[in-house]
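Treating backbone geometry as a discrete language has practical consequences that deserve illustration. The sequence in question and its structure tokens are set out directly beneath this paragraph.
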Amino acid sequence: MVSTDRKAWEQEQRKQRLVEIAEAVFFENGFEGTTLPAIADAAGYNKRTLYLYFRDKRDIFLAVVLRGLEGLREALKRALEAEVPAGSGLRELAAAFFDFSIDHPEYLDLIMIYESRYFIYHDRDASTDPDSHLERCQQVSDDMARLVTAAIETGMTAGRLKSDLTPRQLMLILWGQIFGVMKIFRMRRRHFEAAFGIGRRALFEHFVDMVERSLTA
């Protein structure tokens, strides 16, 4: 007789396998081009099986996004752990974001869709299931916002960063700038260096230099 713990473990393994398969389908077809039947076909199941683990397409999409968000959060954490004592951490955070975006461009695409469609940045419903994929995505997004905000606050307190904005306000501006730059890099990735006379990494470093100068003047 299979124990309850063993059965739960097997169900979780099957669910994670479905997320991996769904991830490949979303990466290939994008959010709009992905359907539950396509995921079911790729997994070798019927659509009813998917509903045993996920409520709908949004739910399985958010399960995939969660993997990307967790990977990005870990990259940002590692960047701060390695940060030199004299810095604010912003340059290291920016470099970590750049590397993650270049190494995992499909995740970046899906995270941007999540940010624009599903992320709730204020006055969230307290009754939301804390274990839902949406709430777990929200929690990771909040963690990253706190990481960046804390780095900014540290820099301001030490006098290394100057701004009329609050740390949280500045975090939002910098987050938007970096997302925007990486989105442009993603859209124009083909023949980038030939077209602009500079590689993406080198241009990104110039961008970070400009931001740093504007905050230390």
Notes: DSSP finds ten helices and no strands in the chain.
